[in-house]
């Protein structure tokens, strides 16, 4: 029976009922030690009649054993691994040491957990209980968090119990329920039930000191002698003054442990030092220290330790802590040493790693043999994508390393592993320790690269570029080339042409006149406005990437090549790069790469007029970037989503997305995100006819750091139009020259057309028509339908003012159709108003496409289903479960007016037209 938790029990029961109905959910139950988290999780298990229950409990231990907690949780259902998609099955089996280790994305295991839980739920709802999750290894927590955030309609409930530790609880980003102490009535009822017959003043003292903590209410009375319970003598252990409650409870457990004989005390200590609770390992180690089976009986009788099958479990983690803290150091060292020897004969796959950690715990000073053993364990962890465990093992190995040079090398490797795990603050701290080691100059470039990686994500790209340039001085070979490539890009992101040019010049000397080096040199020169030099070199890199397979061009290099196409206005080539790159990332479950590839693809789709897909891909990228901890990328994706809001005229959403992102980006000198956000706000102002506001905003941006980014060239036509509409043609001259130079260098028809349109806006009288007609002709070669429609709108307005209404109608109707197709409501309203002013009765709103009724996720699912993919295939592509895919289709059918899958292909094909 639980006291005082009716509200919390009801919340848990509601989640269990939801799982029965096929709704997935997760909840983190947090609070201090003994507050009742475990009891609530146990209540969930009791209430889960009809649900399959799998559970595991974290154990406090200094080792970081990769995926140990996850293995414990999923051990009963590992027979289902064979039903997972091949890469996922391999990743999970490798993580658990059940198969050969295979390289994979660090998020692949989380995806496999998602699929495995969804597979289990095919047989009925599932309840996963993870208690003391704060002591689960980080790799397991990350995998479970990933799965929890992508489970929706499977009937899986994940409940985590997490002790308050003073830092944000893991798993992060999930719904949370915080527990506090019981109220007075509930605390009194619990104490009277579990400890009847206490003297009144003892009872009052316990109620006052326990602060409503259920564990304290139960355990403090257990530590009392009969005389103390009767009030004849209060225990000295209660005279703690300001000592925290947790320490008082631990003292109560210590008092119970102190009554045991020497053999039982030894066995209790060995069990406290053994992280998995394996009975045979504990008994073998205890036997070597003189504690036989009889000691186990006495330890069990104390109630501190419970044998359950082949496992030993402490009644509460504080009991374990009390045993450890109450034992002299020499006895703890002996226990760890005995456990290492016991594990030497164990056949478990993880026995070698556990043995290495126990030997490290038994070490009293530098020991190269133990350090080398831990380093080997770190290599095994890396092979299983357990990068957090790799970092922990290498850091401890460094602490045990006698020589400064080897110690620095291991610390740096630990920091690099922490970067691979996404734990950047820890990486920075370990990296500083590596740099402080004396006499190790050869590690300088790697330390610099590490500092730059941390700085890029947590600080400023410009600072990261400077760090890379300094660290690469005097370095040669592939490492130098990689560092200089990153330096050019960081200088570009940070809006610093001098840094980018310096890095590009050194890159050309280090890598030769390769298309990649020349392309990045072009990118640096573009920041100075030298488009005639820059654009041909950047286009050459794109063409090189598309001309055939080049083993030297990995995913990162192909991203750069595709970005060059975007910058130079070659949207078709950009799509040709990013479309396959996104598909490959999906197929390989490369979740670290996918958000970046989706971001770039969405930009290309926006420019190409595929607004639905652009929004869906940007939203997917945002969710994945958040899930995978790519915080740097979130602001950029927010700004891209702000474009779609700007185009539709959703002012509040556009500003909510862009304003905060721009502020953060400028603070960190991340000019790339600030530039795209500014472009979105400028587009919004233009659509809402706030021309003066648009002109001031864009002029200020072009004259500041944003002016070094190519987005300043892309919003130059808005500056020209805003200047013309506000009667300030003098403010249009600079932007016009900038865009004309770009258009001439790029040779893209859409860019040449927009340059002609801008010229027409600044040309007085009838001479403007020559430029308008040339712009319309150039637009006929395709590309950027939104810009085409803007040209026709402006030409139509010009024709109407010239009283050529019939000609104006043709232009305005075409513009209206495109704006309506794109969902550009403010622009469609302007075109419609102009049409009505010509007397055109057809200036009515077009009906929406059925596809516009879908959410971004539903749209993606429908598109893939229309291609003939099964739910399982779609789930693998979108990193969701098959049941969630089925739910999206179920919701989409009525919106589309179709009865089933067979009609989707015809509908989607009919709706797919240029500009959709």
UniProtKB/TrEMBL annotation:
Keywords: ATP-binding, Nucleotide-binding
The keyword 4Fe-4S is assigned to this record: no
Highest taxon listed in the record's lineage: Bacteria
UniProt-listed Pfam families: AAA_16, GerE
Domain HTH luxR-type stretches: 847-912
Keyword Phosphoprotein: no
Name of the featured protein: AAA family ATPase
SMART domains: HTH_LUXR
